[in-house]
Amino acid sequence: MGENAEIISKGETSCIAATTIYYLLCSIGCQPGYGFLYRSRLRKLLGFPKEACKDNIVHTCCCFCALCQEHRELKLHGADPTIGWKANVENWKSQAVTVPPFFEPEMMR
Fold first, then answer.
1. Which of 3, 31, 36, 87 fits 81 for a cystine, CB–CB 3.0-4.6 Å?
2. How far is Cα 47 from Cα 92, in angstroms, rounded to an integer?
3. What are the pLDDT digits (tens) for 53-62?
């Protein structure tokens, strides 16, 4: 969760902070709402259509599957959540991509 949140928030939320919040919410059974928040932000970031009800159900029924899917989507769209926001920005700058690749607006996996 922390790695995904750091990339989705563009570095505003650190991996450690998001992980800690998610862990604390897991201990009281309220983590689906937090996961849903970042899944919604990911949809907006990647230009996917809104599916609030479906996203909430996915995070409620199988939050770990949802987190894995979000991680794969970030990697598919050119971000590596395992290295953090700053390292991704540096990688993107060094690649000197002038036009970002186009992807159809839907979850792939």
1. 3
2. 20
3. 888 888 889 8
